[in-house]
Amino acid sequence: MTTSPRSSMETHPDLIDMRMRHEMAERATTTSRAQTVETMALLAGLYLAASPWIAGFNGLTRLAVTNLIVGIAYALLMSGGFGRAYERTHSMAWAACGLGAWTIIAPWVVAGDVSTTRSVVNNIIVGAICLLLGLAASAVSNDRRSSRGDQGMPGR
């Protein structure tokens, strides 16, 4: 009466659930829509971080530092979120929307007296793009969640 510990471990419900989540995460990252949103969000975050030097308003140091920090945070938040943190993608997308909205209002909140039109226009355009990409990531996440329910998989 020898029982193989391997066979009992392979059928453990938690292990089966982890495998199913991993497979769903792989499927989510292979869709062209998710890859496009992720790539564009990474590029938008990197541009936001470098925008004070690209657009030429690096003299406004508080706004330049804010854009640098928010851009790096946005790029890190949105890149790789679909695969590595599948269950948290929806909330990460909403956090990215918050960063996009902050980028839009940052010239007035951080810099106070905004003396250059470049900084305002740059932040409004990049913030709107970041906001829209966050909404798109949320929509992709919702698509994945609804298709998960169609496959008979339990939701958490």
Layout of helices and strands:
Blueprint: H1 5-10, H2 13-30, H3 32-55, H4 61-78, H5 81-84, H6 89-109, H7 117-150
Q: Got a strand count? A: 0
What would the principal axes of the Cα set say about the shape? elongated
Kindly provide the radius of gyration, computed on alpha-carbon positions and rounded to a whole number of angstroms: 20 Å
Structural class: mainly alpha
Average pLDDT rating: 76
How many individual helices? 7
The profile of the biggest β sheet is: none
- Content of β-strand: under 5%
Helix content: over 70%
List low-confidence stretches. Answer: 149-156
What does this protein look like?
With 156 residues, this protein is mainly alpha-helical. Helix content is 80%, strand content 0%. It contains seven helices and no strands. It has helices at 5-10, 13-30, 32-55, 61-78, 81-84, 89-109, 117-150. Helix 4 runs antiparallel to helix 6. The longest helix is centred in the last third of the chain and has 34 residues, at 117-150. It starts with a helix and ends in a 6-residue tail after the last helix. Residues 149-156 have low confidence and may be disordered.
Question: Which features characterize this protein?
Answer:
single chain; 156 residues; mainly alpha; 7 helices; disordered C terminus
